[in-house]
Amino acid sequence: MTAGMGIHGLRIAIIGAGIGGLTLALALRQRGMTAAVYEQAPELTEIGAAVALSANATRELRRLGVLDGVTAASTEPSALIYRSWQDGRSIAAFPVHDGLAYQTRFGAPYCGIHRADLQHVLAGALGGSGLQLGHRLVDLAESGDGIRLEFANGQSAQADLVIGADGVRSVVRRYVTGGEDAVYSGTSAFRGIVPLSRLPSLPDPQAIQFWMGPDAHLLHYAIGGGGQDVNFFAVVEGPKAWSHTGWQAPVGHGEALAAFKGWHPAVTEMIGAVEHTVRWGLFTVRPLLHWFRGRAVLLGDAAHAMLPHHGQGANTTIEDAITLAELLATASPGRLETSLGRYQAMRRARTRKIQRSSRVTNDLLHLQDGPALADRDRRVSRFPEDFGWIHAFDALGSVTGSAPISRPAA
Ligand SMILES: Cc1cc2nc3c(=O)[nH]c(=O)nc-3n(C[C@H](O)[C@H](O)[C@H](O)COP(=O)(O)OP(=O)(O)OC[C@H]3O[C@@H](n4cnc5c(N)ncnc54)[C@H](O)[C@@H]3O)c2cc1C
């Protein structure tokens, strides 16, 4: 088997058909290159949860010609609201869709979308070309004339460049770094999707909202073309250690709800509307010094899995994909290493900064009641200003040299 054909005749293999792998395949194709995409799953069925896409990703999806498909299947939150856990007091509120505030400021929309819908739009645009399902990479080794890929199904392939878009438990990362497992963050989450009709106590149901309390927070936003469902993500401190081999650990009946005892009815209604059989461990990848080794390079969660508190895992993954595609398209013949070095330099600092900030934000969202709350409330009120740099970023512009996109907040 031979990987797809890139610029200057480069055979390109992408490992993983998640958000990163599919976006990269599309971005390469737009630039006249093809890649073989190897995905371990026998079919593309993203697990049932949602993702919030911000302007730093949606402007790239527009450039790829898929934003209309994404917006048709998604909802832009009316506002971003931070609330107190018990009485639901609004601590800070900022318009998003209201008055088209977000799009006016950042030049592209904010979308809440079911992951399966996003994957469907990306895979549909790719049209299945080059996609090899049921291919779990188990080993890779550089040989004189390229890199050899071995799959669990007994097949093998030869490539000149391998991109590890294989997520937080990346096999390619092990090859690139010689180790570096994902690290359990000490926090875990309950998640679910609930029809709005089952949430009578929820104020501002079309907003994206953070409910902040002692040792926990709940984030939710509406998804679907008509905003008819609410995706939620409830994060708690603990368990202290993660003794399970996968992401998920079984939980007893009522355990999720017990973790939010005494919270506002909007929160308990949401969590109680789902039968939770598992909790999700939240894992990160320690900032890596090297993102590539020889002919293998990392992208997305494989390189920089982060806590989801800025909602930036998928968004930064899309940025990676565009940056790498553009650098490969403009690479000089025989200068692959220079392009990979530039990619690493361009992506490492930004993703580290967001990773670090997501960790700090975890602590801010989980403060105990007490005098420190006044400072938390002040900081939360400045979030759109303090974190505008995340949303204003223009990944393609960062390669081609144009400025970030942002107008002052209204
Ligand atoms: C609960 C939760 C909520 C989140 N919410 C948000 C959000 O609102 N906004 C946001 O931006 N991000 C969010 N994220 C983060 C986001 O989901 C990830 O950062 C993003 O999916 C990373 O994309 P990826 O393509 O790198 O990896 P993935 O989407 O994980 O894709 C990896 C792919 O590689 C395949 N694969 C793995 N190993 C192999 C192998 N050996 N061989 C072949 N294929 C393989 C997998 O099957 C998968 O299809 C959230 C994450 C979590 C856990």
From TrEMBL:
One of its GO terms (molecular function) is monooxygenase activity. InterPro entries: FAD-bd, FAD-dep_Monooxygenase_BioMet, FAD/NAD-bd_sf. Keywords: Membrane, Monooxygenase, Oxidoreductase, Transmembrane, Transmembrane helix. The chain crosses the membrane at residues 6-28. It holds the Pfam family FAD_binding_3. It comes from the Bacteria. The keyword Membrane applies. Residues 12-356 form the FAD-binding domain. The keyword Protein biosynthesis does not apply. This is Monooxygenase FAD-binding.
